[in-house]
Each structure stands twice: as structure tokens, then as C-alpha cells.
Amino acid sequence: MGVRLEGFDEMRRKLHDLANRAERLDGEQKVRFEDLFPTDFIRRFTDFLTLDKMFAASGFKVESAEDFEKIPDDAWDAFIEKNTLFENWEEMQTKAVEEWTARQLGLDD
User: Fold this and answer.
1) What confidence score (pLDDT) does residue 52 get?
2) Is residue 4 included in any domain, yes or no?
3) pTM value?
4) Are 42 and 54 in contact (CB under 8 A)?
């Protein structure tokens, strides 16, 4: 009498797919704000419906990466703390990167 185990081929395929996806993420990644902070993320964690609406409400002109980089860190952190579930911009970015990575690895199902 023995035990028959099934499903290992499927698990092996999924692990192989995960390894391939992880390999593609190796190294530095350039990710657009829209991809890092999709509408679903903004709606779940902020007082806004879209990233554009969040930028507009901030009172800062944000039409490019250069515009965003000119925003004083302390002022942006204060805006994030007041209008999101995060204490500061670094915490918000960390969560966004975690979720983006999970999506890229196919772990967000």
C-alpha cells in the first residue's frame, strides 16, 4: 500500500515561472509612478481616487520627475501623513514597491 501524490508537475512549473520572473527583476528597475502607484493602490491607501488628483491636491506643481524632485521632503512627508495611511513618503514608497514586486512575480492573485 502506498500514497500517491499528485500536483508536483504543476508546482514545479509554477516555481520555474516564479524563478524566471524573479530573474527579470534582478538589478535596478526604472518604474513609472503610474505603475508603482496604480489607481487601486491610491484608492486603498490615500484620500484620493487617482495619483493625478493626489498631486493636484498637494499644492505642488507635479508635471514631471524634475517637478517632483523639487518638492521639499518635509513638506511632502507632511502631506503624505495627513492624506494617506502612511506616516511619510518612504513608508508609502516601501509599500508600493512591495506590491509592485508581488505583481511582477505573479504573487498578487
Assistant:
1) 94
2) no
3) 0.76
4) yes
